[in-house]
Amino acid sequence: MKLVDIRKVEDCFDGSMIFRYSFNKEVEESLMRIMGQKGKLHYYPKFLRPFFKITTVEDVQIKGIIGHDNIEVVYPQTNKWEKKKEFETNLRKCLEELDKGDFTER
Amino acid sequence: MGEEVASFIEKIPRHPGRSGAAFEDILFLCRKELAELIRVDDPLRIVLCKNATEALNIAIHGIGLKKNMVITSAMEHNSVLRPLYLLEKKGMIELEIIPCDAEGRVNKQQWEEKIDKFSPGLVVLNHASNVTGAVNNARKLLNDAKKKGCLTILDASQSMGLLEIDVSTIGADIVTFTGHKYLLGPSGTGGLYIKKGIEIEPFFVGGTGIRSDLREMPPEMPGRLEPGTPSIPLFAGLLYSLKWQKENPVPLKKMEMLTQRLEQGLIERGAEVIRVGGERTYIVSFRLPGWDLKEIGYILDRSFGIVCRTGLHCAPLIHRYIGTAPEGSIRLSISRFSSEEDINYTFDVIEGLMNETR
């Protein structure tokens, strides 16, 4: 699975820091669970299209829909650019782990 | 409407002011329908542009305010507030913003008091709130201002096509509107009515296809305020929708019933609804305790396919008065095409969401 696009998403508020990360494939539960290891995962599998959100220890919020080809990430105001860089490094590692197929649920 | 727009995109591009070819003047026919809708005698007093924001900028910047006091309300959209803030920043106006009540209507008493006190050069009033749906008694508020000699602008973006607007009685010198809401036209269409005798200096200037040898914009209305090539396909779409609406009046009773049902059902399921009494448009603003506002918009849209909007709705001031500051609200809109099934589905989804928090 490859990351194909990173795009800033605007909302109502000045200074908000939201990015959409798009992939070449649909997000599946396996990727969600790998990313979920980095924080607290809330998963709502009974929703019409299952929704998940992950809040990392750095207070980065990740949300997505299983079956969609993107996730949205909200960065906190403090050290937002460092946190973005760190998240993206982690995301690439998660994608590598997914591709290797050696993920086992913990 | 989409097919009508597409058919005009496929036609050879021609503009009535720039081509000798005889063909239907879409823009004039559009003006004629719009004039009929708000009871304007002369369709040439209808200026067409791309949205209500552009219409409001043409009006607010073109009126020629010089050190005037301007009064507006806290329920306004940024399409009103930002042009006024800009003029205030340039030192061209003093701005007074009248608070609104908990339903989102302008405070009548303060409106009257401030108009009496300042005799402002201009008042700008929202006909209906895009956040709560509360409708102002525009006729009373604007005619009060007219008695004090003010110029008056009515922002009818949320009401034109839904509520009756009669320019001969409503007290507005200028009425601005958008095509993509209750007029059912495509986005990218809008305009303004300017009363005879009100002079607006062009905010945009350029080619008009007529009197091109002049250095300035020609005096003829509406071309004086319409430089550049308009989107004939989009206005053909708007024209189609205006004609369709005439044959298919808005089912007000059904929309009112669905709105009340939606409001009541949301309350019963634990939502904090901004309740609106009296005259209103058919939108419902609310919050869901236990859910983050941005998250809920994302879930409703992407998980359940419920089109909604969350946040400030480009009307940042009203939230201080209706209890939704600083994040704003979730807004659902009932259209003439909404059904009982849509409402029932929304209830099922909201119930499920609230159960997740218990």
Detailed description of the structure:
- Chain A is α+β, with helices and mostly antiparallel strands and 106 residues long.
- Chain A has one domain: TATA-Binding Protein (2-Layer Sandwich).
- Helices cover 27% and strands 33% of the residues of chain A.
- Chain A is built from 2 helices and 6 strands.
- In chain A, strands 1-2-6-5-4-3 form a 6-stranded antiparallel sheet, covered by helices on one side.
- In chain A, strand 4 and strand 5 form a beta hairpin.
- In chain A, helix 1 crosses helix 2.
- The longest helix of chain A is centred in the last third of the chain and has 21 residues.
- Chain A starts with a strand and ends in a 6-residue tail after the last helix.
- Chain B is of the alpha/beta class.
- Chain B has 2 domains: 246 residues, 3-Layer(aba) Sandwich (Aspartate Aminotransferase, domain 2), CATH 3.40.640.10; 106 residues, Aspartate Aminotransferase, domain 1.
- Chain B has a 7-stranded mixed sheet, sandwiched between helices.
- In chain B, strand 4, helix 6 and strand 5 form a beta-alpha-beta unit.
- In chain B, helix 1 packs antiparallel against helix 7.
- Chain B is globular.
- The model of chain B has no long low-confidence stretch (mean pLDDT 94).
- The chains are: A alpha+beta (106), B alpha/beta (358).
- At the A-B interface, loops of A face helix 9 and helix 11 of B.
Number of helices of chain B: 11
Oligomer: heterodimer
Helix content of chain A: 25-40%
Averaging pLDDT over every residue of chain A, what do you get? 92
CATH topology of chain A: TATA-Binding Protein
Specify the overall morphology of chain B.
Answer: globular
Query: Tell me about the biggest sheet of chain B?
Result: 7 strands, mixed
Q: What is the count of structural domains of chain B?
A: 2
Radius of gyration of chain A: 13 Å
Count of DSSP H/I helices of chain A: 2
- Tell me the β content of chain B: 5-15%
Order of helices and strands of chain A: EEHEEEEH
Helix/strand order of chain B, N-terminal first: HHEHEHEHEHEEEHHEEHEHEH
Q: Which structural class do you get from the secondary structure elements of chain B? A: alpha/beta
**Beta-strand proportion of chain A:** 25-35%
Strand order of the largest sheet of chain A: 1-2-6-5-4-3
* Amino-to-carboxy terminus distance of chain B: 45 Å
